């Protein structure tokens, strides 16, 4: 059974890999045997160092995914440095908060461009490379609880993450028969730098914990395990699925 989760010899491109969920996914894939191309605006030096310490090849690929301009370069650089691309994890994303009555076009466009438009066109570029290799691959999108729920004061984020769930399904419909598995992970409330202020708010923290059946915030490593599963042969017949890793939040 262990061989089903073995990613030895595969190359994973992970966006937003410098910290938090992206770093945890990159390192989980590396522990399972994959070599890593760590993509982001901020160089993922720590992630790359830790992946190399595990005995993997790992490279920094600098790219600002607020536009689609660098998507071709991301794939080309990963292939040039590591020889191929077998796994793409679309983790990079941003959020803007304001009441919907006051939400600006600039904040709308910034979130949609990064979280949805760049995700699609990077997936397209990666899929073309995977098909050219003749070996297929895996694409894992990072969705959100707001792919299922509405949330408040984050209209562009909710729209983008709902779109990520939809793109996951349509790309699976088109690419599954070509040997490319497309799925998504919807993280719940995860203890990262991005949620530090929320956890420090006693009232909000208490309300969140009261709803999570598991009784705790998630660890970034909890998402890493799900990513290894979806990237591996253990998930070879899983297509178009959005896997909630949320401690039971959506079941409540």
Quick structural overview:
The protein has 252 residues and is of the alpha/beta class. Helices cover 44% and strands 15% of the residues.
Q: What structural class results from the helix and strand content?
A: alpha/beta
Count of helical segments? 8
Rounded to an integer, what's the Rg over CA atoms?
A: 17 Å
Q: How can the largest sheet be summarized?
A: 7 strands, parallel
* Top CATH class: Alpha Beta
- What is the CATH architecture assignment? 3-Layer(aba) Sandwich
The number of strands is 7
- Oligomeric form: single chain
Determine the CATH superfamily: NAD(P)-binding Rossmann-like Domain
Based on Cα principal axes, name the global outline: globular
Number of domains: 1
Kindly identify the CATH topology. Answer: Rossmann fold
Mean of pLDDT: 96
Q: What is the H/E order?
A: EHEHEHEHEHEHHHE
Low-confidence stretches: none
Approximate strand percentage: 15-25%
| Terminal Cα span | 33 Å
Itemize the secondary structure elements and their pairings.
Layout: E1 11-15, H1 20-31, E2 35-40, H2 45-53, E3 58-62, H3 71-82, E4 87-90, H4 105-133, E5 137-142, H5 155-175, E6 180-187, H6 196-200, H7 202-211, H8 220-231, E7 242-245
Parallel strand pairs: 1-2, 1-4, 2-3, 4-5, 5-6, 6-7
Helix pairs in contact: 1-8, 3-4, 4-5
């Amino acid at each position: 059974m262990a061989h089903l989760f073995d990613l030895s010899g595969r190359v994973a491109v992970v966006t937003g890999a410098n910290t938090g969920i992206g770093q945890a996914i990159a390192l989980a894939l590396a522990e399972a045997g994959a070599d890593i191309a760590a993509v982001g605006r901020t160089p993922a030096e720590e992630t790359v160092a830790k992946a190399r310490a595990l005995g993997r090849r790992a490279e920094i690929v600098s790219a600002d995914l607020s536009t689609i301009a660098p998507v071709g370069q991301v794939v080309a650089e990963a292939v040039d440095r590591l020889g191929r691309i077998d796994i793409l994890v679309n983790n990079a994303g941003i959020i803007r908060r304001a009441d919907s009555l006051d939400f600006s076009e600039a904040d709308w466009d910034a979130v949609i461009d990064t979280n949805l438009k760049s995700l699609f066109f990077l997936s397209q570029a990666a899929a073309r490379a995977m098909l050219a290799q003749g070996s297929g691959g895996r694409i894992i999108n990072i969705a959100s609880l707001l792919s299922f729920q509405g949330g408040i004061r984050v209209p562009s984020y909710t729209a983008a993450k709902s779109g990520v769930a939809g793109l996951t399904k349509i790309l699976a419909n088109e690419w599954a028969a070509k040997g490319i598995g497309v799925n998504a992970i919807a993280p719940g409330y995860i203890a990262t730098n991005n949620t530090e202020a929320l956890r420090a708010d006693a009232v909000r923290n208490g309300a969140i914990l009261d709803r999570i059946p598991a009784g705790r915030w998630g660890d970034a490593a909890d998402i890493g395990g799900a990513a290894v599963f979806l990237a591996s042969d253990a998930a070879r017949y899983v297509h178009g699925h959005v896997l909630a890793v949320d401690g039971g939040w959506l079941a409540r």
